[in-house]
Write a structure and sequence with these properties.
Length: about 350
């Protein structure tokens, strides 16, 4: 089932300084309006067999990153490497050979499944498009896929609307698995499901990952879900990553005030830690007019005048952990002293 195409130790996916800006349109004649800096210099790697989390509030650019990584959108700048092949500027025909190896699972399984097709036909179409299974074997393969995601082979005869949300997400997963991918971008795959169904779905995805040695970019607004599912994570705010590292360390000791706020809002709160965590007020500013300096400063309880002037550089805490916040720059302790904060309690 699993295709170990290469023994390489290099990360399966490498994302370097990725940028994607959109121009909004104004008025009835579609004049160019504002430039939205949806993704503004994002870098991370996904290792083979790893689940990497991308976390942030709605509108932070994480879903755009997911689409860029699969080259469903073309980046404006930066680099993308998949299995040691630079695919940043690959043409559509060149990308075809990678398409089968990279798949996507969306938040809303209903809108991603054709309501007029029976489930068996939906899965068979995928097998047909990618030419991975002989026509006479497709029925058996569909039954295997449905069984693999915990559904009865009889589900092939039914339509998507006959299933619950959790079952539909299993069908969407079966469709993604039908081409034996090595890498899946899962964009909020459980956020539309009830908590108990979420747990079952995450468990299923974990088992599939291990069995198939899959790599997953797991996009979520929920730090608690990412804690359960991922080994490493990056936290995004307004198009940029502000903190990244291993999940246990980030969860136990979030450094960036934004990560601390997300941690505090997580549905599995830690009463001891809750005392020290920042509270998050206000709305995310528009990505078409990000605040000067640190983009987080209008909402940050620890912001000083210096934060208003300069975007923070990356501070490397260890080999995996890094944070973009002036608080951790040893040379700025005088500028970041508590008495210099813009907001005093
Ligand atoms: Fe807050 Fe300043 Fe750090 Fe930005 S750089 S997160 S405003 S303390």
């Amino acid at each position: 089932m699993n295709k170990m195409t290469t023994p390489s130790k290099a990360p399966l996916v490498q994302v370097r300084d990725l940028q994607k800006f959109f121009t909004t349109q104004r008025g009835p004649f579609g004049r160019a309006g504002d430039t939205v800096r949806a993704v503004d210099g994002v870098s991370f790697n996904v290792d083979r067999g790893e689940s990497y989390g991308l976390v942030g509030e709605s509108g932070c650019g994480k879903s755009t990153v997911g689409r860029l990584v699969l080259r469903l959108l073309d980046p404006d700048a930066g680099g993308l490497v998949f299995d040691e092949h630079d695919i940043t500027h690959s043409s559509r025909p060149e990308l075809r050979k990678f398409r089968q190896r990279m798949q996507m699972v969306f938040q809303d399984p209903y809108s991603s499944l054709n309501p007029r097709m029976r489930v068996g036909r939906i899965l068979e179409e995928c097998l047909k498009v990618h030419g991975t299974v002989e026509p006479q074997q497709r029925g058996n393969r569909v039954a295997e896929l449905l069984t693999e995601v915990g559904l009865s082979p009889a589900a092939a005869e039914r339509y998507p609307h006959e299933f619950s949300g959790g079952q539909r997400q299993r069908i969407a997963l079966a469709r993604a698995l039908s081409v034996d991918p090595e890498f899946i971008v899962a964009d909020e795959p459980v956020s539309a499901l009830d908590v108990s169904i979420q747990a079952q779905m995450l468990e299923l995805m974990k088992n599939l990952m291990e069995r198939r040695n899959l790599s997953i970019l797991f996009i979520s607004h929920d730090l608690g879900v990412v804690r359960y599912f991922c080994q490493r994570l990056a936290v995004m705010y307004l198009g940029r990553i502000v903190e990244k590292g291993r999940v246990p360390e980030i969860f136990d000791k979030p450094l960036h005030p934004y990560t601390q706020a997300l941690r505090g809002a997580s549905p599995i709160p830690d009463p001891a830690l809750g005392q020290q965590l920042e509270k998050l007020d206000g709305e995310v500013p528009s990505a078409s007019a990000p605040p000067d300096g640190c983009h987080f400063h209008p909402r940050c309880p620890r912001a000083t005048e210096y934060c208003r002037q300069l975007y923070p550089a990356w501070i490397n805490v260890d080999e995996e952990r890094a944070v973009a916040c002036h608080l951790y720059d040893p040379e700025l302790s005088d500028k970041m002293a508590p008495e210099k904060r813009l907001r005093q309690d």
